[in-house]
TrEMBL record:
Gene3D superfamilies (alphabetical): Amino acid/polyamine transporter I
Domain SLC12A transporter C-terminal: 673-823, 839-1051
NCBIfam families in alphabetical order: 2a30
Recorded topology in the membrane: Multi-pass membrane protein
Family recorded in the similarity comment: Belongs to the SLC12A transporter family.
GO molecular function: sodium:potassium:chloride symporter activity
GO cellular component, one term: apical plasma membrane
Catalytic activity: K(+)(out) + 2 chloride(out) + Na(+)(out) = K(+)(in) + 2 chloride(in) + Na(+)(in)
All residue ranges annotated as the Amino acid permease/ SLC12A domain in the record: 159-664
Protein name as annotated: Solute carrier family 12 member 1
Organism the protein comes from: Oryzias sinensis
């Protein structure tokens, strides 16, 4: 045990002898405060030598002494703010508020800093909380990569900029961009490129805001969305995004294979036939790419640099080629170098073959995707918070300018249609007609393209870039580079995202793929799965159908990233503090909507399919309720909505039609009285407020730690048992004061309890008078605060706390024994822990059986309602609510009322009419006209025996003696009181007899609760009434409303 010093008290420097600590003297000069060294600015160091293992270490009772005295307070430190599951560093435990605030205890549970000596090295060791190792418990769950061990970490250029540029510069740049500008003209062509860049730029801004709002780990888009919107959205889009990347590998590889096969056809070197050659080349290519990926991120990064160099040379080759004067061969194919007339001619659109602006945009947009390539390897970045915004946005700018530059150069040099035939040359100045007339100004007549299809020009030749370039083979190399770099980026992205998803254990069946290997924690299993998916789609050979789905999958991710930024900003949570400030919540919302629109523009059925899959996965994750809590903006918005709704509700007056029971249940700990909680939950279910309450009795200093420790565990217990209820607790000197506080202060605005539910005090005869007075006092308080009051009695009892406690102790003992056996034998235990799980059934089977009575579906039977006094209708409303619940649907209502002799039929008809107006159905109405009869002699004798210990028996004494007895025992039942309330006492006994006759077989009995007038009826007499009324019956509810109507027959 380490003993902290009280603040500013040098006398307590003399620590206990058992620790045997000796103070080291400073050699840096004297100082005034014995706990403060001004030169060292650190607390004095003590040597601790009394260790059983003879370990030598020194202890510093305080982390700092900059304030001139020793203190348990700690200066701000990053380790205090780590999550409990953090693997990137240990979470340091700061002193609790109680340790600083409570009266100083010499023996403290707080452990100060330890200074360990290893040779000449001093290591400060805080008292730390041990991580439970649960990955989903921590934002920092990804194990940190130690650079000293050779782990590869990338900066913003190699890690983000290069990857994004390579992924965005796809084959579209070389084989489709010219066609897009031919169809749309360079006017609308610019709009196509700018619109694509708007989508990606807004997404990039939103992503920048999200990833600078805290530590970013591996998982890319999945990580950003899941930590912002929660596991439901993150889990659904993460699986879709990982699958899209896996299929994208196949799409890019097939694009590469098709180019190779075209070359084979050109040189008559086909192996089998075009489709099978695509499959063979594709499979070989993906195997080589897999080898590069598995070899490690360093090799993959080197390959990306090589591919980038080739791609840049190819792009420069296009610009150089457009500046070289056109040869006759190129002129015949529509290339005339830079000409203003051609540039103006190509400004307007010329849509052909059913193409429209949107269809052309749909074909081009996939070229703009790929902005998440850097974010997808966020776990491998040196500083993802700085690298992702900078690299992604710069990549969008560079690639956007490149697309525009290449497209405009081609639009200024190549006509839309050309024959490729040199014989179509004409003298300069020849007048031609049609859309190809512009070529006549440069010596070629392509008017034949008006009547027959031509093979060259912007509209007809996908290899315009090769023809325009200075050296054609470089364009082929650029095409190879573009396809292979995109395939390689996707092949790395898919397993990384999938691994992050699996680590969070949202889909438990996929946890197998969470394991990483090597210094970079490479997802080898994920690579294999991605390889299998890629090969499967490569073997199909035709990705024209799947391509739009992939684009839609990517767009769905973009939409959710934008929505995440908007949602987090809209929630205005204090935790939303992104370092990147150049974003706007409404711009993010516009970006999300724009992405959704673009999805439908590209392919409406693929968009619907994407939404359908996402919704199904969302529902699955919601139903499974993964045990994670990432502080998502969804939680923040829920809180904001709750406060807003509660405030709007408080501005509306209560109306009888909207009355619903809002129950405050005195259960003690949430699990202590199951029947009470289960029945209350049946009344409120999802439609009313239910608060389970516990009063901790005793000095606050003693009970507060237990209360604070139980707050969260009790609420979690309710959640796990699917009880839609809240847990509340107070600490007080006595039980009644605590309950009074709960009755007055529980709830919020209109969301406030209106009904108290309590268990019958079965042991009232043996409990002390203070307990009985407190219990009855609570009932009086409930009536004073105008609460409806409900009391449940079950003959077996309600409280199972002693059984739970005994069970916990036995389980703990069994576990300790098992651990001891394992330590002694070095083998697995023999299962004693599992065998000892049912001590409660052995100890009290009857009580445990009755405690689960209201958990299960009720058998066919009746709920007997003895509505004896009009209390506003609560006695009738609560049983009606029960019949609407699934567990009670087989139970019929039977109504019993008190009637005057000779008027039974009239009373029945009146009640029948009233129930009809209330629209409450019942199977039977019984009028009891014999309640006024005196109870039997047995009942009277039993009652007298019950109250005899609590009677004063002052009648046989003289007046002075009687008065003295009353003063000495004011709580006892006097003879005068018994005489005054003889009729009411007889009524309770008689009612019990009638209940025994009519309702002995009921599933549940509900009776109007008798009221005891304050100051007139003693507490023990009232308890005797309640006991006599409900004795030897099935489960019985005593109900008394607050005498305000809760039922109405008006519409």
């Amino acid at each position: 045990m380490y003993l902290p010093l009280s603040e500013g008290n040098p006398a307590q420097m003399n620590l206990c002898d058992s620790c045997k600590m000796t103070r080291f003297k400073s050699n840096r000069g004297a100082h005034i405060n014995s706990c403060y060294d001004a030169t060292l600015d650190e607390p004095p160091v003590y040597e601790e030598t009394n260790f059983s293992n003879e370990e030598h270490r020194t202890v510093r009772p305080s982390v700092m002494s900059a304030f001139g005295h020793d203190t348990l307070d700690r200066v701000p430190n990053i380790d205090f703010y780590r999550n409990a599951g953090s693997l990137s560093g240990q979470r340091v435990v700061r002193p609790s508020l109680q340790e600083l605030h409570d009266v100083f205890q010499k023996v403290s549970t707080y452990r100060p800093l330890l200074l360990f000596h290893f040779g000449n090295v001093e290591i400060l060791k805080y008292d730390v909380e041990k991580s439970d190792g649960t990955p989903s418990d921590d934002l920092e769950s990804a194990e940190p990569l130690d650079s000293s061990k050779g782990a590869v970490r990338f900066g913003w250029i190699r890690g983000v900029l290069v990857r994004c540029m390579l992924n965005i510069w796809g084959v579209m740049l070389f084989i489709r961009l010219s066609w897009v500008f031919g169809q749309a003209g360079w006017g609308l062509g610019i709009v196509v490129i700018l619109l694509s860049c708007v989508v990606t730029t807004i997404t990039g801004l939103s992503m920048s805001a999200i990833c600078t709002n805290g530590v970013v780990r591996g998982g890319g888009a999945y990580y950003l969305i899941s930590r912002s919107l929660g596991p439901e959205f993150g889990g659904s889009i993460g699986l879709i995004f990982a699958f899209a990347n896996a299929v994208a590998v196949a799409m890019y590889v097939v694009g590469f294979a098709e180019t190779v096969v075209d070359l084979l056809i050109e040189h008559n070197a086909l192996m089998i036939d075009p489709i099978n050659d695509i499959r063979i080349v594709g499979c070989i290519t993906v195997v080589l790419l897999l080898g590069i990926s598995v070899a490690g991120m360093e090799w993959e990064a080197k390959a990306q640099i090589l591919l980038l160099v080739i791609l840049l040379v190819a792009i420069v080759n296009v610009f150089v080629g457009t500046a070289i004067p056109a040869t006759e061969d190129k002129k015949s194919k529509g290339f005339f170098s830079y000409q203003s007339k051609i540039f103006l001619e190509n400004f307007t659109p010329d849509f052909r073959n059913g193409e429209t602006f949107f269809s052309v945009f749909a074909i081009f947009f996939p070229a703009a995707t790929g902005i998440l390539a850097g974010a997808n390897i966020s776990g491998d970045l040196r500083d993802p918070q700085a690298a992702i915004p900078k690299g992604t946005l710069l990549a969008i700018l560079i690639t956007g300018v490149t697309y525009l530059g290449v497209a405009l150069c081609v639009a200024a040099t190549v006509v839309r249609d050309a024959t490729g035939n040199r014989n179509n040359s004409v003298p300069l100045g020849t007048v031609c007609n049609g859309s190809s007339a512009i070529a006549c100004d440069f010596g070629y007549d392509f008017s034949s393209c008006e009547v027959e299809s031509c093979k060259f020009g912007l509209m007809n030749n996908f290899q315009v870039m090769t023809m325009v370039s200075g050296f054609g083979p470089l364009i082929i190399a650029g095409t190879f580079s573009a396809t292979l770099s995109s395939a390689l980026a996707s092949l790395v992205s898919a397993p990384k995202v999938f691994q992050a998803l699996c680590k969070d254990n949202i889909y438990k069946a996929l946890y197998f793929f969470a394991k990483g290997h090597g210094k970079n924690n490479e997802p080898i299993r994920g690579y294999v799965l991605t390889f299998i998916i890629s090969v499967a789609f490569i073997l199909i050979g035709n990705l024209n159908t799947i391509a739009p789905i992939i684009s839609n999958f990517f767009l769905a991710s973009y939409a959710l990233i934008n929505f995440s930024c908007f949602h987090a900003s809209y929630a205005r949570s204090p935790g939303w503090r992104p370092a990147y400030k150049y974003y706007n919540m409404w711009l993010s919302l516009f970006g999300a909507l724009l992405c959704c629109v673009v999805m439908f523009v590209i392919n409406w059925w693929a968009a619907l399919l994407t939404y359908g899959i996402e919704i199904l996965l969302y529902i699955y994750v919601t139903v499974k309720k993964p045990d994670v809590n990432w502080g998502s903006s969804t939680q923040a918005v829920t809180f904001v909505s709750s406060v807003s709704n509660a405030l709007s509700l408080s501005g509306v007056e209560d109306h009888v039609k909207n009355f619903r029971p809002q129950i405050l249940v005195l259960t003690g700990s949430a699990q202590n009285r199951p029947p009470l909680l289960d029945l209350a939950h049946s009344f409120t279910k999802n439609y009313g407020l239910c608060i389970t309450c516990e009063v901790f009795v005793g000095p606050k200093s003693e009970v507060l730690p237990e209360m604070n420790a139980g707050m969260e565990s009790n609420q979690l217990w309710l959640v796990k048992r699917k009880r839609k209820a809240f847990y509340a607790a107070v600490a007080c000197e006595n039980f009644r004061e605590g309950t009074e506080s709960l009755l007055q202060a529980s709830g919020l605005g209109r969301m406030k309890p209106n009904t108290l539910m309590i268990g019958f005090k079965k042991n009232w005869q043996i409990a002390g008078k203070d307990e009985v007075q407190s219990y009855v006092g609570i009932l009086h308080d409930a009536f004073d605060f105008e609460y409806g009051t409900v009391m449940l009695r079950m003959d077996e009892g309600l409280d199972v706390s002693h059984i739970i406690k005994a069970e916990d102790e036995m389980l703990k003992a069994a576990k300790e024994q098992q651990e001891n056996e394992m330590m002694a034998n070095g083998t697995k235990g023999k299962g004693l822990f599992r065998k000892s799980r049912k001590p409660s059934q052995q100890m009290n089977e009857k009580l445990m059986e009755s405690s689960g009575l209201f958990k299960k579906k009720q058998p066919k039977g009746t709920i007997d309602v003895w509505w004896l006094f009009d209390d506003g209708g609560l006695t009738l409303l609560l049983p009606y609510i029960l019949t609407t619940r699934k567990k009670w649907k087989d139970c019929k209502l039977r109504i019993f009322i008190a009637g005057e002799p000779g008027r039974s039929e009239a009373d029945r008809e009146e009640m029948k009419s009233l129930l009809h107006k209330f629209r409450i159905k019942c199977s039977d109405i019984n009028v009891i006209d014999e309640i006024h009869i005196k109870p039997s002699g047995d009942s009277t004798r039993t009652f007298k025996e019950m109250i005899d210990p609590f009677r004063l028996h002052e009648g046989s004494k003289d007046t002075a003696h009687a008065e003295a007895m009353k003063k000495e025992h004011p709580w006892k039942i006097t003879d005068q009181e018994l005489s005054n309330f003889e009729e009411k006492t007889n009524l309770q006994m008689r009612l019990n007899e009638v209940l025994q006759e009519n309702s002995k077989s009921a599933n549940l009995i509900i009776v109007s609760m008798p009221i005891a007038r304050k100051g007139s009826v003693s507490d023990y007499l009232y308890m005797a009434w309640l006991d006599a009324l409900t004795r030897n019956l099935p489960p019985t509810l005593l109900i008394r409303g607050n005498h305000k109507s809760v039922l109405t027959f008006y519409s």
